[in-house]
Design goal:
single chain, 255 residues, alpha/beta, binds nicotinamide-adenine-dinucleotide
């Protein structure tokens, strides 16, 4: 399938590499030239802008770091809506359901179908194709891109309502953030009491406190002191804020 891919960062880089390796024909764009180079070496075509991508292919995927950038890439001066070939827009970023609905309203009058498809499982999951891929949008359109999404991992269809997969993703990331914050507090308490943090992680992972912070983030990046697990803290702050906004929009008091 011919696919445009915009945003070739920690997630978009390995995801687009996997699409090429699975036999898809890619047209890529990122504001950082160096992010495009390795994919061009693998056979992708480099585009000049999101509009250029959308002028070349019917299916455009994005993996972008903020809501503002996402909106600009879709509806800005050089945005996807300026391309005349694009038929469907598959957003793999985490944006929350309100932004997804806003984008849907921009795309609908132009006859461009929106498919929300946020992912979970981190950079390691993007590299290995073991992500949880949440999808919402018209079912027949989702079926058209299912094979491409399956290159990223396990696909979960959440429904046709715009933004529904985003709500699913925010619930997941809220739990992931909670695990990280709570695990940090628990281990800090133990260390102050005199326990070895590696021993603590081993015990927790053999017991009922286990979560992705203790199985992955602590062993790989907190205990070795590198603190980089491929997910910028700013992205997690974005996701927790979006979760709180979304929960409050349903009248769930959070304070
Ligand atoms: P990133 O910052 O590593 O990558 C974003 C990429 O977008 C960069 O290469 C950047 O140059 C590019 N970009 C920025 N502005 C652009 C523009 N105007 N046009 C084209 N490209 C532009 O971010 P990431 O970690 O890959 O995350 C991307 C999305 O995936 C976010 O929504 C994030 O919440 C979500 N996500 C991340 C992870 C993770 O573990 N990193 C996991 C699941 C979901």
């Amino acid at each position: 399938m011919e696919i445009g891919f915009i945003g070739l960062g920690n997630m978009g880089g390995p995801m687009s590499r996997r699409l090429i390796e699975a036999g898809h024909k890619l047209t890529v764009f990122d504001t950082r030239k160096e992010a495009m180079e390795p994919l061009v070496k693998l056979g992708a075509e480099a585009a000049r802008s999101p509009a250029d991508v959308a002028a070349r292919v019917e299916t455009v995927m994005t993996s972008l770091p903020s809501l503002t950038i996402g909106m600009k890439v879709v509806g800005g001066e050089d945005g996807i809506i300026r391309g005349n070939r694009v038929r469907r827009y598959v957003d793999l970023s985490t944006t929350g359901s309100r932004a997804a609905r806003d984008t849907y309203e921009v795309l609908k009058p132009r006859g461009i179908v929106q498919i929300d498809s946020p992912v979970s499982g981190g950079v390691a999951g993007a590299e290995k194709g073991t992500l949880a891929v949440m999808v919402s949008g018209p079912r027949d359109e989702v079926e058209l891109v299912r094979a491409a999404l399956e290159v990223f991992g396990k696909v979960f269809y959440c429904g046709d309502k715009p933004g529904l997969a985003q709500s699913m993703k925010l619930a997941n990331n809220f739990l992931s953030a909670t695990g990280m914050a709570a695990s940090s507090e628990a281990i800090a308490m133990g260390v102050k009491a005199g326990l070895d943090p590696s021993l603590m992680v081993d015990v927790i992972n053999a017991g009922s406190g286990m979560n992705t912070a203790t199985t992955q983030k602590f062993p790989r990046s907190v205990l070795p002191g590198t603190f980089d697990y491929g997910f910028g803290m700013g992205l997690m702050v974005k996701d927790v804020r979006l979760f709180l906004e979304e929960a409050e929009s349903f009248g769930i008091p959070l304070e």
